Amino acid sequence: MISVNCSPEVKEDDLARILKEIRKDEMGGWMELPRKIDMGEFVRIKEAAKKIRDESEYLVCIGIGGSYLGHKAIIEALRPTSETKIIYAGNSLSRRELDMALAEVGDHDFSVNVISKSGTTLEPAIAFSEFKKKLIEKYGEEGAYQRVYATTDAKKGALHDEAVANKYERFVVPDNIGGRYSVLTAVGLLPLAVAGVDVDKLLEGAAEATDIVVEPASKYAFMRYELGKKGYDTEVFASFEPATMYFNEWLKQLFGESEGKNKQGIFPASVIYSTDLHSLGQFMQDGRRNLYETIIDFPTDKLNAKVVQAVRVAHTEGGIPVLNITVSDFNEKGFGELIYFFELSCAISAKLFGVNPFDQPGVEAYKNELKKLMAEE
Ligand code: PA5
Q1: pTM of this prediction?
Q2: Binding-site residues, ligand 1, Cβ < 6 A
């Protein structure tokens, strides 16, 4: 169960209109997804996960942005057990990072899950070409291709075409679901199943959430909007569980890419306490008052709970609005619910700010500059 501690004015007519718009949006497929899983594909995902676990010591997950943050967040948080280690590549252009990933796999048996909806993103494309070379060297062409799992568009894109030509096992990122809303599709489910996460429970939590989080999610979204309009232009997500650091990263991408357009939106930042009380804590207590804090209050031990309480009081006294999102389960079901809660909150909030929650036109700017620089070489 998720609950929030704020009571903004929720304009019911606006909310009804927004929910209708999201549901009808061509990119609103994530809304019904937990209740409408493609069971045929879900079974194939589990079978593929079993095969990968049987034959590989490593699964290299190659993808960037929405193609990796969600599953990494859940794996890091829940630390499931699996003999197959998940490692990540293709989420930067650093040659050093790529070499380290290649070196870590070394001579071990491995498989690759390359994840890209568009199938044309530079970072994963470069990493994939390196790991493909390594697979071919180790297993020969035919053996290599049997160890590649491609999660991409159902019909188009360079990765789709290559997957068809080389007969990689393919999974689909549905047309009506964008990258940052895709963790409950094959994008997240395959790596999560390999890592040993109970994906049935994760989906169960998300499916239950489709009904029960509408109220808290709308309250939180309207509260964000109210705070934003009052000049609070930065939201700091605060968690007291270090294992949720990547969940914060997922949140930042979700809100940043969904809301930050047309000079609108709230800048998403994050802290892990009590660690960051000894770095950003000073600013939070006493710095420029343009920010508010959203505590994601996971169940925790007695001492840590006291820190949550202390921070709430101290920061409120320091003049920061402190929101509290209480999460009752630190497990697959809890994260399924939480993911859906934030996806819905984010879509509603973006709509309140008058922007499209599902596009990301600003991401193209750096790509165009990079293309120009690469062409100069
Ligand atoms: O949320 C999004 O749409 C983006 O962050 C994408 O996930 C990211 O840019 C990767 O795109 P692709 O999956 O097409 O490689």
Answers
A1: 0.96
A2: 64-67, 116-118, 121, 124, 178-180, 257, 360, 363
